From TrEMBL:
It is a multi-pass membrane protein. Its main location: membrane. It comes from Salinibacter ruber. The keyword Endoplasmic reticulum does not apply. Keywords: Cell inner membrane, Cell membrane, Membrane, NAD, NADP, Oxidoreductase, Translocase, Transmembrane, Transmembrane helix. InterPro entries: NADP_transhyd_a_C. It is found in: Cell inner membrane. This is proton-translocating NAD(P)(+) transhydrogenase. It catalyses: NAD(+) + NADPH + H(+)(in) = NADH + NADP(+) + H(+)(out). One of its GO terms (biological process) is NADPH regeneration. One of its GO terms (cellular component) is plasma membrane.
């Protein structure tokens, strides 16, 4: 148990350091590219929640499933938003009376 806790803490620190070094311009494309791979964490969380016998382990697996699902859904939402930024812009509809004067003679 202690070894697993040490590995978890080290992975958290390493992940934080790696993510803070990524420039903002690369963060969204990297996130969208890795989003499909993040789906594997959902499968792993399902396995972790289903293969355990104790209630404590089942709840931890369920928590992992919730967090992994939030990660994947959030990644898809960010990717969708990013792709909309590169789409064609719709032309603004012409307003009624555009280009007309208020009726006074100049």
């Amino acid at each position: 148990m202690l070894n697993n806790l040490i590995i978890f803490v080290l992975a958290a620190f390493l992940g934080t350091e790696v993510l803070t070094k990524v420039p903002q311009t690369l963060h969204t494309p990297l996130m969208s590219g890795a989003n499909a791979i993040s789906g594997i964490t959902v499968v792993g969380a399902l396995v972790a929640a289903g293969m355990t016998t104790g209630p404590w382990s089942t709840w931890i697996g369920f928590g992992a499933l919730v967090v992994a699902t939030i990660n994947v859904v959030g990644g898809f939402l960010v990717t969708d938003r990013m792709l909309k930024m590169f789409g064609k812009k719709e032309a603004a509809p012409a307003s009624v009376g555009a280009g007309q004067t208020n009726g006074s003679a100049d």
